[in-house]
## 1
Amino acid sequence: MSERLKNDAAVEHAVEALRGLRGTIGEVFFRGSHSTSVEVKDGAIENVLAHGERGIGVRVIDGQRVGFAYTSALSSEGVRACVDAAHAMSRVAEVEPDLQIATDSPPVVELGIHEDGERSVEDRAAVAVEVERVARAVDPRISGFRKTTFSDSGTTTIFATTLGAWGRYRESSSGVGTAAIATQGEERQIGGHGEASRTFSGVSAERVGRRAAEQAVGKLGARPFPTQRIAVVLDPWQGMQLVGAIGTLFNADSVLKGKSLFKGRIGERVASARVSVIDDARKPAGLRTAPFDGEGTPTRRRELIVDGTLQGYLTSLKTARKLGTEPTGNARRGSYAMPSRISPSNLHIANGAEDASAMVAGLDRALRITSLLNLHTIDPISGEFSLGAAGDYLERGVKQYAVQGITIAGNLVALLSSISGVGNDLTFGGGGIGSPTLVISELSVGGT
Amino acid sequence: MTPSITARDAERALRTALSRGGEWAELYWERHHVVALTFDDGKLEDAVTGLDQGAGIRIEVGDQQRFANSNVADADDLMTLAGRAAAGITDAVPGTSFESLRQEEVPRTHAVAIDPRTVPIERKVGLLRRVNELARAGGAKVHQVTAQYRESVQEIVVANSEGRFRTDTRVRLVLSVLVTAKDGDVLESGYEAIAGTLGFEMLSDEAVVAAAETATRRALLNVAAEPAPAGTYTVVLSSEAGGTLIHESVGHGLEADLNLKGMSVYSGRLGQKVASELITVVDDGTDPGRRGTAAIDDEGARTNRTVLIENGVLKTYLSDRKHAKKLNIPESGNGRRESFRSLPICRMTNTMILPGTSDPAAILASVPDGIFVKKMGGGQVDVVSGNFAFEITECYRIRDGKLAEPLRGATLVGQGPKLMSEIDMVGTDLGYSVGTCGKDGQSAPVADAQPTLRIPSVVVGGKVKGTAA
């Protein structure tokens, strides 16, 4: 192997190779990125990681059959082998009459997702060191850190089809995260927090260090908690976990296969009237903002739930055609090595009208969740969940004591209907997901 | 298959890596072939194949590690990468000693009989089609079937400035079945997977049929089951449940990186009693054909059978090179990485509680009122506090020492060392489960195993009667 191809040349090579296959159409998705991470520990640099990555994913449609292959060997031989492998895979695929590829180039739009800039390892380390300094200043019981990492990256995406579509965009991100340890006698508790931004200056060491420390210290002295039904408070960061979990309910692919509880419910009430859910792929500088999706469809802002009523689904080219609707630009690519999958962009629960602290102070007794274990086990099909949790027991909004070793259980859809309060403190997290403070009127808590 | 980088290429790259200073350097090269097939909604939904090739070069400079990685096509790319890894080093002394590379064959504990790359793709699709038909034969309540086949052939080369040059080829297969059953408004699922570091011979017709039938039976059982109650119960964990418990409640806490930083509930407790004397815990990266098995770890160290806890006493931690040195314990061969993109971290391979002396039937019969866990799903642990949670995917109420009604939607939560000191019966049997473990954003194939266990009192998460959500 030799003769490394530049980014555009790799895409052009692949498109040419695709055109050389008789009777097929095809799509090429290129992604190239570089990133640097600096890990510090107790004020000193521990690891410096520099990462470079380039590859293409190729989709071949032969008749009505699709095959997919990827490669990171970007020589002309490597690209050709990848196109041939995708073509070979299409032969075992089944006939799918609704397959399409883009014919038009997506328009170029400015979304504030890219920042040019060079910075030194020391500049990056300084952010992480500051996070640890802030955390230690919060409380003397902060005894150390598992790891504090600052990372930044720059990514180029190029998309092309044999039918003439061509698009490209660049994006950048910076992020910092830590896990602080609080110690009191024999007891140790961990509190983690991380944030990311499209720009270097958008990352706040102050916020990250403070929240991680407060999370860790807040769990000290945690007690067991009796089994009961009780009102539950999710602050924006915990609310994001709920928002992240409901994303698949809107997935048109799941809907078509009968795997979503939102199937057949457009126009119906699926959540409390206080709840509106928005997926905004054009949110300026949003972490999941992109001009077009993995199939070259231009993205847009969508209202998925308005005042509790379901408005629509997230679709790809194929699923939109099956549903007889417009593609929404949600066929996202996790990487060049993964085919498009329907997923949300900057999904969030819309800001409410109530002051979050006043809303929580209005509850006689409540459990404020501070951490959840096993979120990956939520069943997206049935919506059932049963998770490990820790939290704070509150009376009239005032913390009485921390609790641990408990579980919370319920169903995602029932949970959406039992949201009795939505705060006015909408916050977006590192994954592009956003939530205000939420109050769940009642939830099952398992304990002693 | 011969690696496409030679010891000579590797040595040149390592010398370049150390040219500006540093005490030690390592090259990790990888070529990873993948075929992933997804059969969903009655048809082949996704057919993906790919080749991922790259390298990572690590340099130790004092207490720092400098690591650069990228896709590499040839020896020139490797040299460029070595230059990038060294670029940040400015203040160290050059001229570190360097051992010439010696190629060394590491014996394997098992052989791959049928290389999956030689099996026609149609046969692989045929397996999924068969799984789909078997599951759908489960009746009208079978709502959806998703079957996945994944073959992974990972060729690696590890070389370092101490003269190490070792290679390994890991052939791993997974066949998984997810069945969703529907009854009225209730949707529930059943899952089963077969996986190992083995060739296509692993996917015998008997094994495939058993997986499809088990996932289907589980989905149908769960859809008809009562929601699990919430509260504190006596729990019997069947050996068939697999080892998620040991993985979450103990295993992660014994990883040396977390212990060095004093961050595990097991930190500083070597030689102390940390579990009931009925408990012996082993991590065995050499267990033939298991999902976590390999000849060498991702730093080129031979894998081992490591006794972590013996009759309740903590013996050692799971280590990589860096942490074995810092903790002054033997290197256990547990430095693993997801790919050339990541630094190795300390992690489990195949982790198990060894069998004890109680008859499994007698353990069940000893419980007048409790919960019998037949299968566990995913889990997670907070290693600092030791609090863990895991999902239960098949369980029953125990009444008068016998299995009674099935329950669904349960979770077990507890604290690792506390739970391990409370286990009061350990069965003579041993059952395995397979999984993919996540740590610090990296995933790794693992297996876990345990005998039938009795836990006198543990929190079970489920629903409190009468709740809306």
Note: The CA atoms of residues 245 and 390 of chain B lie 7 Å apart.
## 2
Amino acid sequence: MLLAELRHLFRRRRIQALLVVLALVPIAIVVALKLSGGPTRGEGPTFLNQVTNNGVFAALAALVITLPVFLPLAVSIVAGDAIAGETGLGTMRYLLIRPAGRSRLLAVKAATVVAFCFAATAVVAAAGLIVGSILFPVGRVTTLSGDTLSVWSGIGRIAIAALLVALSLLGLAAISFFASTLTDVAIGAMAATLGILILSGILDAIPQLSAIQPWLFTHNWLSFGDVMRTHITWTGITKNLGLQAGYVVVFTSAAWARFTSRDVLA
Amino acid sequence: MSAPAVDQLHPSAGEPLVPTGTPAIVTEGLTKRFGSVAVVDQLALEVPAGSVFGFLGPNGSGKTTTIRMLLGLISPSAGEVELFGRPMPSASDEVLPQVGALVEGPACYPWLTGKQNLERIDAAGPHGERSTRPARIALALERVGLSAAQDKKFKAYSLGMRQRLGLASALLRPRRMLILDEPTNGMDPQGTREIRHLIRELAADGTTVFLSSHLLAEIEQVCTHVAMMSLGKLVTQGSLAALQGANAARVEVQTDDVGRAVEILRSLGLEAEVQEGNVRAELGDRRPEDLSHALVTGGVGLRGFTIERPSLEDTFVALTGEGFDVAR
């Protein structure tokens, strides 16, 4: 059923379009860099400076740029639609009397959301890497510590970074997934998730709230940049992953409690 | 719609799960409240296995809510449901694969074709073997007369075609029971006839068919048993014959010789009387042909001789004292 569900998701035009749009973001940025001759040193998001020297960095810049908005948007569209989309269409009742089994259906849907998080991140990183390598020179990768790594180990680091970004999205995905079990309107779940995302961003920017900031799921999102140190520092990364795991456990449990007990009227 | 060889595709179709004689559906004290309103109130249904069971009631009488509880889509506020002797919803995994259902109209993915929709639903649960899937889908589509439109997107389907696709999905696997909620909704007269034919065909194979409808005349033609709902309560249930018998048939005679006709009918023991210029009487257990013969040989010129059997609607009105309108 998982395979069928994955095929169902990725065969959908809407999802394909979403992935294409995600790929276009790094492509547009890299092309703009090429046309404008590159940013002035010291300006713009992390890693963007290095792109003109080494196209490989385009993948990292793409992740940094899409992580705050584009990736969460895409993930909340898919996760918000996971359950609410089926109830909204009325197909949920036919899945349940099939019987797909409520817990099993929830698990399969959750797995497809996770798969999408990975796919979306991979698309962004790959698009950045490919277009960056085409338009800019590719060479040894300079780490944040100042050393250089071979191109292939640099790309290996980028793969780790992409993996961490995908995992960073899981907390948000779990929130969206839970919201999806609360409503029959997919767009409602999506909007609620984005609201929470924006709120989290705002709270993270208010200095007086430093006490709660470590608990915000967006707080350690950019920790993946640490993989670009010569010796990867894992503190921020571990914190982030622990926090995401916490969000996943809490919100998927809530989703399970809600979904296995609710009346399906639609 | 022909009847292809079902047995080749459904080798296990005839194998009973429980001893025969166990009713297909039993509910006890089944109640569903939304807020303070009991939409279904203390329902005690018993659907014999192998019957074609008409579940009747006006819009809003609680039919769909009942069906949702039967299938475990919503949990009852009180009471119990058993399908083939197994408690629902706890035995869902065991029982539901044997039940095909159409609940409150079909629901499919608009961006997929009819065939793709069936593939998806078949892949979503147990007993949907991939090796037999194409053949089972083709058979189901043929049975509902949708083969020609199988590669059209669902969003391009008419209401009647959607209904047919919903039925096809209920027929994808061998079933011991079909629960069909308003199956002919949105269908043209030809489609309605086809569905009736299909239901008879399925019933002949021993499938229990539980059929909800607000169209009494439609039910009358296919059902062996009937239950009637009004305002969430069960008004009556039983075999169709018993229900119709409870409200006896009447004879109406149109003639110019009213007095003579009344005389003859009374001599045969009928309580004949004149209403609106015609002679009417309860038929009782007499044969209509005997009455007409007696009248004609008695020299009464007949303009009309009609036997009126009470329709289910008459029965419903007699039982509830209400018209068969939207409730609440």
Note: Strands of chain A lie at 141-142, 148-149.
